[in-house]
Amino acid sequence: MVFLHTGGEGGGMTTATLHPDVETTAEAIASMEVRGAATIAGAAADALQTQAEHSEVSTAAEFRNQLRAAARRLHETRPTAVSLPNCLRYVLDRMEGDSVEELRATTAAAAAEFSARLETAQDDLGAVGANRLRDGDTVMTHCHSTDVLSCIEAARDRGIELSAIVKETRPRKQGHITAKALRELDVPVTLVVDGAAGRYLKEVDHVLVGADSIAADGAVINKIGTRSLAVTARERDTPIVVAAQTVKLDPATLSGHTVEIEYRDESEVISERERDDIGEITVRNPAFDVTPPRYVDAIVTERGQFPPESIVTLMRELFGEQTATPWENE
Amino acid sequence: MVFLHTGGEGGGMTTATLHPDVETTAEAIASMEVRGAATIAGAAADALQTQAEHSEVSTAAEFRNQLRAAARRLHETRPTAVSLPNCLRYVLDRMEGDSVEELRATTAAAAAEFSARLETAQDDLGAVGANRLRDGDTVMTHCHSTDVLSCIEAARDRGIELSAIVKETRPRKQGHITAKALRELDVPVTLVVDGAAGRYLKEVDHVLVGADSIAADGAVINKIGTRSLAVTARERDTPIVVAAQTVKLDPATLSGHTVEIEYRDESEVISERERDDIGEITVRNPAFDVTPPRYVDAIVTERGQFPPESIVTLMRELFGEQTATPWENE
Amino acid sequence: MVFLHTGGEGGGMTTATLHPDVETTAEAIASMEVRGAATIAGAAADALQTQAEHSEVSTAAEFRNQLRAAARRLHETRPTAVSLPNCLRYVLDRMEGDSVEELRATTAAAAAEFSARLETAQDDLGAVGANRLRDGDTVMTHCHSTDVLSCIEAARDRGIELSAIVKETRPRKQGHITAKALRELDVPVTLVVDGAAGRYLKEVDHVLVGADSIAADGAVINKIGTRSLAVTARERDTPIVVAAQTVKLDPATLSGHTVEIEYRDESEVISERERDDIGEITVRNPAFDVTPPRYVDAIVTERGQFPPESIVTLMRELFGEQTATPWENE
Amino acid sequence: MVFLHTGGEGGGMTTATLHPDVETTAEAIASMEVRGAATIAGAAADALQTQAEHSEVSTAAEFRNQLRAAARRLHETRPTAVSLPNCLRYVLDRMEGDSVEELRATTAAAAAEFSARLETAQDDLGAVGANRLRDGDTVMTHCHSTDVLSCIEAARDRGIELSAIVKETRPRKQGHITAKALRELDVPVTLVVDGAAGRYLKEVDHVLVGADSIAADGAVINKIGTRSLAVTARERDTPIVVAAQTVKLDPATLSGHTVEIEYRDESEVISERERDDIGEITVRNPAFDVTPPRYVDAIVTERGQFPPESIVTLMRELFGEQTATPWENE
Amino acid sequence: MVFLHTGGEGGGMTTATLHPDVETTAEAIASMEVRGAATIAGAAADALQTQAEHSEVSTAAEFRNQLRAAARRLHETRPTAVSLPNCLRYVLDRMEGDSVEELRATTAAAAAEFSARLETAQDDLGAVGANRLRDGDTVMTHCHSTDVLSCIEAARDRGIELSAIVKETRPRKQGHITAKALRELDVPVTLVVDGAAGRYLKEVDHVLVGADSIAADGAVINKIGTRSLAVTARERDTPIVVAAQTVKLDPATLSGHTVEIEYRDESEVISERERDDIGEITVRNPAFDVTPPRYVDAIVTERGQFPPESIVTLMRELFGEQTATPWENE
Amino acid sequence: MVFLHTGGEGGGMTTATLHPDVETTAEAIASMEVRGAATIAGAAADALQTQAEHSEVSTAAEFRNQLRAAARRLHETRPTAVSLPNCLRYVLDRMEGDSVEELRATTAAAAAEFSARLETAQDDLGAVGANRLRDGDTVMTHCHSTDVLSCIEAARDRGIELSAIVKETRPRKQGHITAKALRELDVPVTLVVDGAAGRYLKEVDHVLVGADSIAADGAVINKIGTRSLAVTARERDTPIVVAAQTVKLDPATLSGHTVEIEYRDESEVISERERDDIGEITVRNPAFDVTPPRYVDAIVTERGQFPPESIVTLMRELFGEQTATPWENE
User: Fold this and answer.
1) Distance in angstroms (rounded) separating the CA atoms of residues A238 and C36
2) Chain E: residue nearest B205 by CA?
3) Is the CB of F15 inside 8 Å of chain D's CB atoms?
4) Strands across the sheet containing E213-214
5) pLDDT tens digits, E96-122
6) Which of A312-326, F122-136, F315-329 shows the lowest mean pLDDT across its residues?
7) Which H helix or E strand runs over B183?
């Protein structure tokens, strides 16, 4: 365990050490032991709450510095994880007061509040998504999304009968995970390869996918293959719905920043033996693609449903316009 | 080896037996030992030629009956293989004469002619396709097509530098075969999963795919995933070209018949172990899909290039309008 | 006249009876004697105001219960009439106070305020819609909408010359009512059957239609045939404008609920005699269809104009996010 | 009965009178006693055959003049009926010989041949169209077309189960006739108003309509409302098939002529009473509209199926390029 | 210099004269000596500030009247300049107080605040726009826009390498000005005529244009040719981004007003000599066209980026809903 | 004048010199003194006729060699001029006979025939195009095309009233030539810059353009800016018609060859002074662009009108399939 010096910024201010839980959490996020947008955000909120509650500094300025340092430490672990800035902004924006005690109270309360909202977000989203589904509907899924499953589960809880066509979603075939989860909800499942999806769209009432993140211009960043699915679904006039908690909204895109697409290891696409057999080739394995809002009919969140072109309104409500990140202020 | 009685139809006419090569060929086609549209057509032409040359019947009527019986036997082996009726029609339509000798000569000559044309067709097609390619172009492929490779090989032979983006083409990953063949032509290859194709279309100058068969309404039946690729390519204004010898043109579609899509074994899609882990699901594995002509820019054949909406003209030139199959005439 | 017991919910609380006007209004709405979105909402506001002003209960809790019971009674008459929850929410959300007198005052005032706004809404909307119209423009209408007529009347009042192409709008031919109203505004009218609309779109400057209700995802629910008209208008690049007071915005859709399409009697479509002549057939008579926002250029309300993708912002401003219906609270 | 002088053209040539049957037929066509594209063409062929067989002229030149005069008389009855020039061209183009006897024989034979082909055309077309239909398919129809019914009847004869959604087709509601005919073929029928068609397209496998005439540029002229149906069907990717005998192909369009759209009486659209109630309005009642080839998937004829963009090839095969009308030659 | 009497409205109220700077500014705007949306707005803000600071009236009512008169005078100079009402509303809406001193202070402060925001707006916008650009991108421009240049300059300042394809933009060839400015930023420039833009879109990563004004329905009014460019860019799936400070948002469009398109002198299109050579013709020279939101991917402002369908939200935040112009109140 | 030795090819065959007119014609074509597709083709036909008529060789083989040499000489002058191979193929394909006299006669006759057809082609085309135009129509033109003018002239000769919107067509502003020619036909002309075309499409009944050449896949190669115009016209559902004599059909495209786009001098785009003022830039000046058939409604030729997807049928009728050029045979 490493104790970090957080001083230095703040001029002649005395330094202070972060609570060990912050570092533990940071390392767990960095190593992807803690993963998934909501799980990461929840862990970060807990770490900030612990830091606030156990801070031993004696001045308000030191407290603020310390909390910002904790946020920085957490943020740097996975700078592209969209849910981290969501959490950090929420808590730091509510850190208010003139004394350490006041600051401690407001910060801890904000962190607790964020965690509480996170806990119910997926169920609330599921309730909204289920409202779009009707008895007898067929849903097509891509990849694996717990937000999507939450919608289907909520519908099943109300006794709505659904069936599903599940795309396997190469390269990692997360469709298999989705298929299994749907079977546990007693939903009849038809599994198809990605290239076969188009052939089944005429039987589909809703294309229902999750999101890795959502941008202020309404673009949906999701597992590779989503855009082709959306384009093809629109060509057949099948509605495409994105289920995404607000923790997936990327505040940096409000000021024009674009989302960097991650490239994963080629071993997901081809085995070493297959590759050796082919000869010298390049393998490209982008994890995500970008679906423009014109191919999406609705984004379902725990705060209700939105046309993708209006999600910017919710983002501004949640994050304001400020482009600076509060953990870098002073 | 089985000697077949071909008599019966034709009333009191004496029966005659087919040459054993016809049966051998029929069995080889039925067992898929002989496979591939052009290979099947070539084998059928050879069998008809042998039958004509070695027929031992003594009347013109018997000769005609016997040749029709041979055609029927060959046709029934794989009634959906589009190249079989192509061959059988070509030869039987040219069976002319009043004596056995005349019939023997015209029939054997027609079969030989068909074989000769078949032999040069792929190279001729390649020369046409290569004319569309320019130095520095990038081609995207789907599945594995020797007609496509013929175009690229012809271009390479002229010193044209090309690069290729190869879709792996689930479930059978024939993209790997294509990648290997392209490497042998010294074409730089980038391999991607099917869902990632859209992300690379902006860099692509030609989507170049083969065909399983082509219908009179201009629809292209090809490996599952072709339609989505074509729809997405059109959305980005990337030309899509189909390379298909005329042996892929399905004469039955002239009279409105549609092409039956084959469903293959689910084991291509999912292993038994994966399936057991998921639970009770349906797996659908259509081998082909149907791309309407509005998503195809050109069909390249050994007889030149055509907009898909005009391929019917070439079909009528090759097959006429008669809807009856000549091997069923009397 | 029936006096309803509203107690029961609220535990041991003493029950109280609703004012007879509430029941009278409820029956008038149920029997469709009172019809039209704005008229229904106005009647409901009046009934709530009467109930509040004449309530004889003695505790604040009883008052609240009684008003909720009145709202429930009104709501159940036509649970799919979108303007009812608009009114009921507006009034009950503003029922505030600790004493019966305070509650009475705030509730009656809210009801009066709602009625006042309703009274000017159509004129305000008309003024906004008229701003889009220019001298010499031709408008195409579908069905009959007083909101649409308000736009045209406002334009005529300013001396703007317009002409109209009126679709008859089967099955009920409400186009005839529109034609008559337009003639009274001295607008030259050309009447066409629904199938002929496309032929005249090139001469049309604005397709101008009303709405039965509008959903949070921007979809416009309006008289059957609207969607086809919008699709065809978009194909010819003719702008389509929806005129709809905010009383048509459906708050339930904020949480994903979809609008149930009503099916009307088959006698609107076919006479008994015609039907007998044909034999056993099914007649389907959906009253409305759903036009997605991508086929609508603007929604004109009394609060200004909006792209359909942004109407959710106005809905959230008017109704907030709460998904529970206030008359079911406690 | 009126005997017409046909002389004058041809210089000093002696005049000759037409056979009374020609005039009878002409009057029957003009009065619409004889109606329907195929019926008109058949009657004209019969009249020409009678004229040829009973001509009493003595020189070849007189015979030719007389036949042209007969053709002119028939043509002028309904100059916009597309099947008339089809018939007249077919017969006059085959009028060959140096003597009256030769001319008589060739002309009468051509007329008989035309009639014979006409007789089987609808059945042949039906057989082609039925090949596109599969067991369990749902067909949507517009207006009333015996060519469409022939496809469905052929399918039913093969035991194919179909169901139909029938648009009523204002103003004349020919959908009722179609519904009745389909019931006689034991096809389950759902009747909807025209505006409701879009709502049912997702359940439809084929939009199947007839044609009034077809132009060389691939445009389909058919009952008003066809274009909107086709545009909406394309938006939902439902195939649209036009069933039309070659007698509907308009030879004048080969040289760029466009098809004049007929306007029918306003009493089809609105009753006098309804109109009086509304006030001064214009009623426009175009009988047909023009669907561009890009919204049509296939044209089914007795000569096989064609993409609409290729129907020009069949037209050139049938009519050649000559733009002059043979009855005006000399 | 002309001293204007502003009294009259306000009944028996004593009149007061405007400060000479208001008139000077008004004349400079009217003569187009002061031009450009931001420059006009800044000049108007300065004039209002001067008027407020130097007003010599003695009552609050007179002060209000006088400021409104100043606003009216400024507004009437170029009633279609979208930035004028932006400025005037901002300042007058913040004119508050019961005494002349209070009114003077609030009004002058509002004017100063407006000027300050204006000063940083273009840089802020540039920072947002630059966030969308990546190293190696190619940008296509139309006409000349300092907002567009600000995005590119900000990107260049961060060391991002860009290249540009510049449309010349007939009739005034402002593309030349853009080309020169880009060269000063060391951006490689390719100049093409307007008709050639489509040919280069495949190489373009962003179409980046400015705006003359933006309407509440999301429409972008910009230099003639923008719409064709956007339509063509969408057909090739090239993103189109509009860079526009909020001073370009037209508040009148919130209430449905449309933007009047200005027609400029024909001498911009054709020289007198060319025209004389041709003969009698009409020359039409519209300065702007209207691009609907469905062809625009994002609007970049100093307040962040927005899908065009959501810009109405920002407009309502800035301007509220009131449709009356505050300078016409009383 | 230069006498060319044509021998060498043909083995030991004695050489022969070309007629001086061949060289004169070749030089006139090369220097663009002779220009325009039809003019070039006519000059080439005349040169071949002269060569045939005045050949002084003594053997059939020498005659053939000499004519091929003449064709080669003519062809090499502008290898991309599409009308040259049209002419050369037509004549050489008809060079038949065993003696010099026979060869001379057939060749000279073929050349004369080609010239005769060429002479009437434009008028015939005009008659076809005029059939599409109706009284009161408005036509939009791009660049300058005598084929387009021929359609309008034919319509005017029939008394049809037309008006025209003429795009100036940068860089060379050939719209001015078109405007002048239309004024001579008494057609009212409105001139607009290229970017303004979209704004007027709603008033336009036909976009009517010429072609530089037409490819077998239906693509139309025409003056830069045609594609954008066609895309925009389609978006507004305005028909786009291409007027092109068959001499514009490019036989090489039947075998997949693509049309090389010519780049012209940058001085057409920008003056030296303008360029010096801007600094170092690249100017790209492509003369033509490629419009895919899906944006063209009809191609009007002297042989009738065709959907662009069917022009390949006419090309095969005119040129057959042979890909070798007859002047390179032997």
Assistant:
1) 32
2) E202
3) no
4) E213-214, E220-223, E288-291
5) 999 999 999 999 999 999 999 999 999
6) F315-329
7) helix B175-184
CB-based touch B/C (3+ pairs, under 8 A): no
Answer yes or no: do E254 and C131 touch at CB < 8 A.
no
Kindly report the backbone phi and psi dihedral angles of residue E53, in degrees, each rounded to the nearest multiple of 5, phi listed first.
-70, -30
Whether E and D touch, i.e. at least 3 CB pairs below 8 A, reads as: no
Residue of A nearest to D232 (CA): A237
Q: Reduced to 3 DSSP states, what percent helix, strand and coil does chain E have, rounded to the nearest 5? A: 50, 15, 35
Strand, helix or coil at E209? strand
CA distance C5 to chain D (A): 43
* Residue E122, H or E segment: helix E100-131
Q: What is the DSSP string of E294-317?
A: GG-SEEEETTEEE-GGGHHHHHHH
Q: Report the C-alpha gap between B141 and B165 in whole angstroms.
A: 6
Closest CB to A183 among B192, B224, B279:
B279
Q: What are phi and psi of A97, to 5 degrees?
A: 140, 165
Helices (DSSP H) in C14-82: which residue ranges?
20-30, 37-54, 60-75
Q: Are C293 and E307 spatial neighbours (Cβ–Cβ below 8 Å)? A: no
| pLDDT tens string F102-135 | 999 999 999 999 999 999 999 999 999 999 999 9
Q: Which of these, F249, F231, F248, lies nearest to F240 by C-alpha position?
A: F231
How big is the CA angle at E95 (ends E94 and E100), to the nearest 5 degrees? 155
- C-beta of residue A236 within 8 angstroms of C-beta of residue A201: yes
- For residue A203, the distance in angstroms to the closest alpha carbon of chain D comes to 9
Q: Is the pLDDT of residue B192 over 80?
A: yes
For residue A220, what pLDDT band results from cuts at 50, 70 and 90?
very high
Residue B258 to residue D306, Cβ atoms within 8 A: no
As a whole number of Å, the end-to-end CA separation of chain B is 27
Q: Say whether residue E179 is in contact with chain F using an 8 A CB cutoff.
A: yes
Longest dimension (CA), chain B: 68
The phi and psi torsions of C246 (rounded to 5 degrees) equal: -65, -15
Strands C298-301 vs D162-167: parallel, antiparallel or unpaired: unpaired
A130 touching C (Cβ < 8 Å): yes
pLDDT in tens, D39-96: 999 999 999 999 999 999 999 999 999 999 999 999 999 877 789 988 998 899 889 9
E255 in contact with chain C, both atoms CB, cutoff 8 A: yes
Q: Is A232 on the interface with B (CB under 8 A)?
A: yes
- To probe the interface with B, which of A142, A186, A191, A280 has the most B CB atoms within 10 Å? A191
Euclidean distance between CA atoms B199 and B197, whole angstroms: 5
First to last CA, chain D: 28
pLDDT band at A16; cut points 50, 70, 90:
low
Q: Is B268 helix (H, G, I), strand (E, B) or coil?
A: helix
D134 closest CA partner among D109, D115, D113, D159 = D159
Confidence check: pLDDT of E148 > 50: yes
Q: What string of DSSP letters covers D132-184?
A: T--TTEEEEE-S--HHHHHHHHHHHHTT--EEEEEE--TTTTTHHHHHHHHHH
Q: How far apart are CA C115 and CA C92, in angstroms?
A: 14
Q: How far apart are CA B20 and CA B4, in angstroms?
A: 9
